[in-house]
Design brief:
heterodimer; A: 52 residues; B: 233 residues; mainly alpha; Four Helix Bundle (Hemerythrin (Met), subunit A); 7 helices; 77% helix; globular
Amino acid sequence: MPALPLDEAGKYVAGAYVVFVALILVYVAIIGAKIARIDRQISELVASEDDE
Amino acid sequence: MYSKGLAPLAAATAVTITAALAMVFFYAPNDADQGFVQKIFYIHVPMAIVALCGFVAGGVFAIQHLRSGDSSWDLRSYVAIHLSIILGVGVLATGSIWARASWGHWWVWDEPVLVSFLIVFLLYCVYYPLRFSIEDPGRQARYSSVFAIAAGAFVPLNFTAVRMAESFTHPRVLSQTGGDLPGDMRLTFLVSLLGVALLFVTLWKLELTAKHASMQLKRLRNERLRNRARVAA
């Protein structure tokens, strides 16, 4: 197939790079949420320890 | 434990990925045959190489686990495979986009490189149900390690078989003669490969840190419950 014109090829290239960035962002967001949950649970544990 | 050196590694990853993106769009020339759409190559191929290396690394960590009995190696193996599957999703998605732009089809079933990667990806998708269907942690780690070793050995075997295949629709990038890439394209590709490899190691360490912290917290809670029960008794 002949090379696509820039305006058409641009959509595909942008799509591929958006997939890559989106994957990384979703992954980091999930790990970030996990770390935030662990942090909250540690705070709760420390607070309950202090109460006792 | 796992977070050692994470901050400088993350900084190096950010710098390398930024440099790679700048080189892709401002330094590397457009491909004479495919034109601008070939820029997908700089993200698709590094992801595929790093994902396959991650699967093999998962097998190597699994060997360490079976040899030593240390569950931290099983955790390393699991996280490496988990991350490689995520990269695998990226490889299949970007590959489909590139195939549509270059060949006019989202998927080509008679192309060995595409189909073999899909087979490897689907093989590793089995890892999750296998791992999480076993409740006993020791057995879970052992069975998962055996799977990781067998599947990890299949990856280079599969790669070699595909290289020996007859179809040449899919371009050969890495060969003994260095492929057909001109110098500036090859440099851009190598920087992209380094960026994705560093990203993999950074995310691997990040997930290991999160999982280790979660396990430590669970251990603390259980210890506290045991102490309470002892005091009550």
